[in-house]
Structures are given as structure tokens and as C-alpha cells.
Model the fold of this input.
Amino acid sequence: MSMVPARRANILVIGPTPPPFHGVAVMTTYILEALEELECLGAHLDTRDPQPLETLGSFNRRNVTLGLRHAWRLHRLLRRAGRPTVLLPISQGTWGFMRDAAFVLVVRLHRCGLILHLHGAALAEFYKTSGPLICRIIRAVFRQADFGWALTPNLETMFAGLVPVSRVRHLENVVPAPPAGISRGDSDGSENDSRFRVLYLSNLRHNKGVFDLLEALREIGSAASNWQVRIVGAGSKEVVDALEARASQLRESGGAQVNVLPPQYDDDKWSEFQAADVFVFPPRAAEGQPLVLLEAMASELPIVSTSIGGIPDTVHDGVQGILVPPADPPALGEALGRLSDDSDLRNSLGMRGRTTYEQRYQPRRLARDLTRLLNLAGDPPAHHDGDQNAMQQHHRAQSHSEMVHRDVPPLGLFEGDIPGPSI
Done:
């Protein structure tokens, strides 16, 4: 297949770029680069929010003002962009989703094509915990999508009841390889090589499982006295203070030596990966495809994570790492203990992870996948719920390579009932 769609698509990307650093922002950057390589990038609406990560998606005057400003900028971009297809990473929280619903309304008023890209795995929970009005808006918004993109094959089921299965695809994440000058075993201090070095590198939030890690270490007790655990990431002062207090208790009781460190970027981040023996990331809440897991694979690290969301699509238990149930500190501690005692297991898991990274998660793959997806996106089908003829026509149209747009009515938030997602 050619690396350029048969007739170049015109894609307008909505999404943030760093800083702050989080999965959607980082992947937006890679997607922009790949679309530029394919000469398919029509425009980019940067929805970057410079506020702290914990305020993202929250309801406050600043976020409302920012959302309205972005919606107006989108309208202006669409007026001069030649009816592009819009790629929108759709939020899975109430206020972020309401902002995105406004974007969808603007897109439909301009009668442009629409791809909704789910970067997480929380849609079913968001729908289940929302009230009737929000559920109705969710259904109406997803009804407008020409296509839905998930992060992994199993996460395609999130669109069930919202987007016909014939219009659902997946686009997996990518990360760069570690810099050539940083080699395994490098460290930033006087590390004792006899120690078992554990790395957690992610945002410091309860739902990321960082407190489960500390509880697992507490239960292991003095058996982990030769473990050095580095917890690296951004968090609120309250969370950082709580983590440091527990780390101090572990040190005083003769347990693992835990250091809580601020976020690291670029070479400093890769040095953390390269100095570790094991990478641990045990989220409690469903994750899509965490970039840190791909970075750990690229660094040839064995992984301990949880079997939730899209993680089992990425890390196979016993292949690239060990998966445990979420919110289960004893199981987490047992998995870390296994790896502490078995260097051969660590090495084999790490090597298989690196092979998986080279085969699936290098940035050059993204342009190939986007070429395939954009070629398959020829002739987006008309929206007729339950219309099997339209779905059959779409299957026949999948071989077409021209991205075209169909006239659709504006977003109707109070139309008749539309089936909700399968939960």
C-alpha cells in the first residue's frame, strides 16, 4: 500500500499538545507529525490548557471561557479549511465531554466529516454514572461520528450501541526509542547494583495505583529492605505529602527505600527507565494504552501492571510482564517479589517487551496505520439507525480511497431515543 492515501485527505486535528504532558497531548503531537508526513494535515486546533493536570476537565470559569474560545476558533478554521474531516479526541468526563459536544455541533454546522478518537477506557463508566440528560447527549454526540477510533482491538467494544461496528477502528499508541547515549544500568546517583530497583513513573493520583504500590511495600516489610523504589511524577501537594509520609514510614521500619521525585522529561526520563530493574504501573481505573508501558518496553524493562482497560491488549501476562487484579496490594507485592528473586524471568520479560515494541509501537508505524485508516474512510455512510442497507453499502465502500463528506443535519440533542452503549 502506498504511504499516501490515493487522494490526500484533508484532516483537521483537534487536541492539546504539551505541556502539560499527558497521553492525549503526547499522541496528538505524534499524529500531527504523521499527518504532515502524509501531506494530509489541513489544520490543527490546539486545545492546550496550561492549568495543572488535576484541573483538566473540571468545571470552572477559566475552563468554560477556554472552551468557548476554542469553539470559536474551530468555527473560524472550518470556514477557511475546505470542509476537512475532523479528528477529535473525545473526553470521558462530564465537563470535558460537554466542551467536545460543542465542538461536534460546530463541525456538523459546517457539514464536515467527523472521527471520534477515544484515548482512554472510561466511556462505559462515564455513561453508567451519568444522569439521563447527559446520557442522551452522549448518544446524540456519538451518533454524529462517521468513524470511531479506539486505542486497542478490545477497546473497540466501547463504541457498542453508539457507533455501528462497521465504522469502528483502532489506532494504537507509539513512543520513540530511548536515546542512543543512554544504556541499560545507567543511573543518576550512587546506586548499589545489588539492590532491586523498582520504578513507578506516571502522574501521582490515587486512580493510578501509586498508593497500592506503597501498601504492597508495607506488607512486604523488611523483606524489601534492599529494594530501591523511585516514584516519579506530577501530583498535587496533598498527594505528594501523603506519599512522602508513607515513604518515610517504610524507611524507618526497615522496609523498602522509597524516593518521591518530581516529573522527569526527555533524557532524564529515559535515564530513570534505563536505571531500573522493573517498571510498575498498577492503575485502579480503566486505562486505554498508557504510554509509560510502551516506554518501559522500549527500555527492555519487565512490567508489573493491572489487568484493566486496554492494558491486557498491550502487556500479555507472562510475556512482557505480570498482570495482577486492580486494587490488590498483596498480588502486586507477590508479583514484585517474583521478579526480585528471578533475574532470568526479568531478562526474558524485558527482552520480549523490547521485541514487541520494535514490532508494534515505533513511531514509523503511525503513518502506515493512518494511511490504512484514511483509505478505509472513503464514503462515510449516512446516519440511519438500524439501516442494514447503509451498513452493507459501507462495507462495499471500504475499498474506496477518497475521503468525502456527506450532508448531515446539525446535532439534535433532543431527538428520539438512541440505543446506549452495551455495559
